[in-house]
Amino acid sequence: MLPPYTGDLSSDTDARTLQEITEKLAIECPKAVIAKAAELYRLSTSRNAARTLGKFQNLLGCLCLHLAAEMNDDIFSHNLVAQAFTIPPTSYLSSLSKLRSVLNIPAPPITFQSLAVRLGATQIVDTAHSMLEAFKDHYGNSLSEIQKRRMDWGNPDLVVAVFYSCLRCVSKIGKRELSSLAPNQTQFNAFVKLVEDHCTEELEHLKNSSNTSATPKRSNSQTPSGKMSTGKRKRKAAKVSDHEDVDADGQPGEELQLAEGTTEPGTDHDHMENTAVQTPRRRGRPPKRQQEEPQAVTPTPRKRPRLGASATPLPKTPKKQNGKSIEPDLAVSGINSMVANRCYRESKKYVDYLQWRAALLKSLPEDSIKKARELSSQT
After folding, report:
1. Percentages helix, strand, coil for the chain, rounded to the nearest 5?
2. Which of the listed ranges 121-135, 175-189, 276-290 does the model predict with the highest average pLDDT?
């Protein structure tokens, strides 16, 4: 616990900077915590702690506030800082441990009370103490005398593991959140498994007691009136809607009520069939008469059968272009001509080629042309 601070923080620039950080994070810190954090900030700056933190050096002010709050036995939400700076909580805790090593500040002792205050579960402190005693009895009987003397029952990893096992039975909490508070992750996981193996009955009893202490749920087999039901929803009595019984005086008589699967004695079966009976149905479900009405069927387009290996292709009709039919047996050359579905002899490229060929033949001597024709005839 830090002593009360009676000085003025306005003259200290570091204290003003840290006070602005608390205002941005919406955290209330007493003057003693801010003054101690300013002292740690100056000490960490002199020891070049920013180099140790690396890319998280902008967290130096928040880390100093965190350490000062721990010295004053106050709660400092590291999740709030991690959310404000958009960094993982594990990175924040690792930076905090690095700053501890730079400033030579030991980690605070981990107890059930400190864990309960940090996680807001002070109601299970006594339960965690009794669970630890049960673990000592069950697990201690399986150890030898030498192992019992070497066993540290106040190990922080064991304390966190027992607290996690108890807290998991009464509320929903993630294992990663508790494991981040343990100094050694491997030992924490090993102790959690040992507690679950040797304190199975105690954990089951704690889980059942937490379920019974909660608001009791109404069972399916009992109705609000206390009568036993079969669990199925009974259909309400059907009422005659189209016809009503009329007394001799001309007044409408009692409505005809029919229970499911039963008929009133003395009634005519034909009269029952002709009577339109409406039964209550679930919301959103159309009546039976609407379901039986024929719906308009939209004709679906007929798909053309796919051509397989054994299928015969359909005959193609010759297409017309500019009023002239294109014969299917004409030679087609080039992908452009095939796509356009036209003869290549009518294309502009072919006409240009013929003109270029004629001009080239005119420019060549007649002797070379004759020799070329003779060679082509020989081959």
Report:
1. 55, 5, 40
2. 121-135
